[in-house]
Structures are given as structure tokens and as C-alpha cells.
């Protein structure tokens, strides 16, 4: 190998090593990159993305249709500002954008959604919620409708019946 080739390979491998060290330092030590994460969204006040769980694809999908729908927004934030805990853990603080922080929130609109995604409208959501609540209320003439007060009093009377049965059994055992 001639002298020019040795110099070329020495410079080439030195530069490659320096680039690897700088990249390692930037991404693993400083965590100088952005993470885009899905976080909870309030559909009453914000235009959220809609996710609907499909029981055919997910075995943990709830049976109730209303529980299958969840609302989220996207947050893009520097990795070094994220908490060092599992985001699914209840003790871990939620990912949010604070004032003065290098962070962006992406709510659902025509520029941020893809073909497969749907957006909610807060006004329509509130209207649907009001309709659902009004349809769940009981009519005065509906005999099959059980109000919360009836349910509580029914539970109390059932508990009283059990107590009375236990007392009767205790009395019959003491007589024997």
C-alpha cells in the first residue's frame, strides 16, 4: 500500500469515528431530537383526533361501543424534556407543552390529519353528549325505569333482607 492510500484511509476512518462519537453524544447523552407522542385530548374544548378500537384487531377492545372511542392530540417535544418514566404509569406526569418550552401541539384539522384519521368537532360533541344524557333520563310514566335513588334504596332493602335472614338463622340455631 502506498503512502497516499494510508493517509486517505487514516483520514477516512478518523472522520467516520468522529461522526459516530458526535452522533452518539447528540442522541444518547444530550437527547437532542424530537419525539412526537399521542396524548389525551378534551373533545369538549379541542378539535381532537378520533381513535376507534376494532375488536377484530384488538382482543382488549371493550364490548361497549361508547368505550371504544378515544380522543387524542399529538405533541412534538424535545426528548431531553420528557419525564424519565413510563407514560402508561399513573405516577408519571402527563406530557404537556409548557410556556417558553420548545414544544408543539397538533390538533386535528385538514392540514394535520391523514386519510385514515377522523376529527371531532367540539360543538357537535357537546350536542351529542346532551342528547345522550337526555335519552338516559327516565319518563314519569315509565315503570321499568330505575333512577339512582331507586337503585340505592333497592340495594339497602336487599341488604336489610340478608341481615334479617341471618338473624332468623341465628335464632333457629340457638333454639336447637
Please specify the SSE layout and strand pairing.
Blueprint: H1 3-29, E1 34-40, E2 49-52, E3 69-78, E4 103-106, E5 118-119, H2 122-136, H3 148-175
Antiparallel strand pairs: 1-3, 2-3, 2-5, 3-4
Along the chain, the helix and strand elements come as HEEEEEHH
Compute the number of strand runs: 5
Number of helical runs? 3
What is the alpha-carbon Rg in Å? 31 Å
- Overall form: elongated
Mean pLDDT over the residues: 79
Q: What is the CA–CA distance across the termini?
A: 110 Å
The helix/strand class is alpha+beta
Poorly predicted sequence stretches spanning 5 or more consecutive residues: 151-155, 166-176
Task: Specify the helix fraction band.
Answer: 25-40%
Proportion of beta-strand residues:
15-25%
Major β-sheet profile: 5 strands, antiparallel
Description of the structure:
The protein is of the alpha+beta class and 176 residues long. It has a domain at 32-82 and 95-136. Helix content is 40%, strand content 15%. It contains three helices and five strands. The chain has helices spanning 3-29, 122-136, 148-175, and strands spanning 34-40, 49-52, 69-78, 103-106, 118-119. Strands 1, 2, 3, 4 and 5 form a five-stranded antiparallel β-sheet that branches. The longest helix is centred in the last third of the chain and has 28 residues, at 148-175. It starts with a helix and ends with a helix. The model is unreliable at 151-155 and 166-176 (pLDDT under 50).
